[in-house]
Amino acid sequence: MPSGNSRSGVVLEGGDGSPSLGTHVPGEAGLWVLIFGEMLVFAMLFLTYVYYRDQEPELFRSSQRTLHQWNGAMLTVVLVTGSLLVVMAVQAAREGLRRSAQRKLLGAIVCGLAFSALKSLEYVDKFQHGTTPETNTFYMLYFVLTGLHWFHLILGMIALAVLYRMLGNSRHDQPLAFVEGGAAYWHMVDLVWVILFPLLYLVR
Amino acid sequence: MSNAYVDDQTFAPGAFAGNTRALRWLIWSGMVCLAILGPAMLLARVLPLPAATLSAEQIAHRWVEHKNSIRLGCVLMMLGISLWATYCAAISYWIRRMEQGVPILTYLSLILPGTGTVLFLLAPFLWSVAAFRPETMSPDVILALNDAACLAFIWLVGPFIIQFALYGIAILQDKSAPNIFPRWVGYLNIFFSIECFCGLTTASVKSGPLSWTGVISFWNVMAVFAIWLVTMTVTMLRALRSLEARQRTVSESEPVLALR
Amino acid sequence: MRVSTLPVLTVRRSKVAATATWFFLLAATLISSALGTNHGVSNPRVASTVIILLAFVKARLIGMHFMELNNAPLALRLAFEGYCVSVFVGVIGLYLAA
């Protein structure tokens, strides 16, 4: 029975069942080179956005009003729900419940698809109003930022799909590191959106 | 470790690596490439690239004024970029070591740098064409040639995206014990592959961070390229050193059985 | 059927923590969206500052509880916290400088 005396609430069970306190790198250490790299690129893009906003605040404010804030909120809810499902999938995988983990991964992928559907509706709506990345600086940044994020979401969904297949392969025991790693990448995509949405849609 | 190439003993554990001096030269050619490219681009006045907001007259004036240094810079760029091919050949050697069975990733790692070198060479070539007789050429033509060269330099990233992604995949799927390259280097390659997408906005954005003079689409990509190159060079040199050490151990302990 | 050949990581409170985080994220999204559509606070700069702050609080929570960085080695955790703080400072600094 794991004891609860650790600072972080985590107790590692050794191979022989003996408890030991410790830390755990989600996925593997090298993966965080990729994740932090991506986060840094997006950080630069966030700062770029605010920098440009400072140059033409009125233009940004008026253009921003054409965005559908509550649709953006919906996008956030969908993505965050997908993340919760991914967390639950990892927990299921840890307990050896492959099928359960697979179902939750599938749920997360469905969330990703729902996000994509809502996003494409947004884009189509913009194009129908004649708004393109060329229209002004705000829209250029809007399309580039959300487009780049969407691309990363697709990569995240592919990662989850690969994990789904891996978990279905009952011949081998898969290292938990892969499942955690794919999940970490998905969460990074979620994290980026959680900053991107308020910046683009809400900050006036 | 079973291998579809039954008699390919070259890469069996402890196998003789052959003459590693040539491989060492190839590995170092990457740093030489970088060392040449820096000054060459400064000479050709393309570091940073000429701003996309400049007029045809301004661009033409630059080419007329500095045509000699541009010509020299482009020659040096061409020579430096040719070393990109030799450097990637060194990488292919290691990809081959990491692969088991049919060496698909190795094949790709041989083809893609070939494509990449040609694409890379387009920029100095076009700039040289513009510098051929800039006095008599119409400024619009020089502008078009410069636009083409700048886009070739930054925007033409398709094969590179695949090349770095496959390097990453090859490094991460390496089942050797110990790993030939550290795992994080594989992830760095995947990161660089995705980074290359930053160059794509330059075909539509003419000013600011996403243009070909911008922080994100130019400087950021150049910086990550330099970091990538230094990392890969150091990693390959380390791997070569440990390979040579194992080779010495094998040949010292069983001189008769050292495999060629 | 065991998935992992590594020692089993037994995280007692993480299931509750994950769901609680999810609820918080939804609530924060609701509050931010309300503030961003002219409800509640009338001063746009104050509203936007709160919105930006909430954004980075949400990001940090995702890192801590979803990415499980709260159990990670100190270096990784500090790198992440450092990221959240510095990007927040950068964004809020640039925003307020306008």
Task: Describe what you observe in this structure.
The complex is a heterotrimer of chains A (204), B (260) and C (98). With 204 residues, chain A is an all-alpha fold. Chain A has a single domain (26-202), classed as Cytochrome c oxidase, subunit III, four-helix bundle (Four Helix Bundle (Hemerythrin (Met), subunit A), Up-down Bundle), CATH 1.20.120. Chain A has six helices and two strands. Chain A has helices spanning 31-55, 57-64, 69-94, 98-128, 137-168, 176-202, and strands at 10-13, 19-20. Mean pLDDT of chain A is 86; it is low at 1-21. In chain B, α1 (20-43) packs antiparallel against α3 (67-98), α2 (56-65) packs across α5 (139-154) and α6 (158-172) runs antiparallel to α7. Chain C has one domain (14-97). Chain C is flat. Chains A and C meet through β1, α1, α3 and α6 of A and β1, α1, α2 and α3 of C.
User: Count of helices of chain C?
Assistant: 3
Helical residues, percent of chain A: over 70%
List how many beta strands of chain C DSSP finds.
1
- Label the structural class of chain C: mainly alpha
CA-to-CA gap between the ends of chain A? 52 Å
Query: How many angstroms separate the termini of chain C?
Result: 58 Å
Q: Helix/strand/pairing class of chain A, anyone?
A: mainly alpha
Most extensive interface, residues per chain?
A-C, 70 and 60 residues
Average residue pLDDT of chain C: 84
Give the count of structural domains of chain C: 1
Number of strands of chain A: 2
Widest sheet: strand ordering of chain A: 1-2
Beta fraction of the residues of chain A? Answer: under 5%
Assembly state of the chains shown: heterotrimer
Which regions of chain C are unreliable across 5 or more consecutive residues at pLDDT < 50?
A: 1-10
The number of helical runs of chain A is 6
What's this entry about, in short?
With 260 residues, chain B is mostly helical.
Descriptive keywords:
heterotrimer, A: 204 residues, two-stranded antiparallel ribbon, C: 98 residues, mainly alpha, 3 helices, 3% strand, disordered N terminus
SSE map:
The complex is a heterotrimer of chains A (204), B (260) and C (98).
Chain A (H helix, E strand, L loop, with lengths): L9 E4 L5 E2 L10 H25 L1 H8 L4 H26 L3 H31 L8 H32 L7 H27 L2
Antiparallel strand pairs in A: 1-2
Chain B lengths: L19 H24 L12 H10 L1 H32 L5 H27 L8 H16 L3 H15 L10 H13 L19 H39 L7
Chain C lengths: L8 E3 L2 H23 L7 H23 L7 H24 L1
Helix pairs in contact in C: 1-2, 2-3
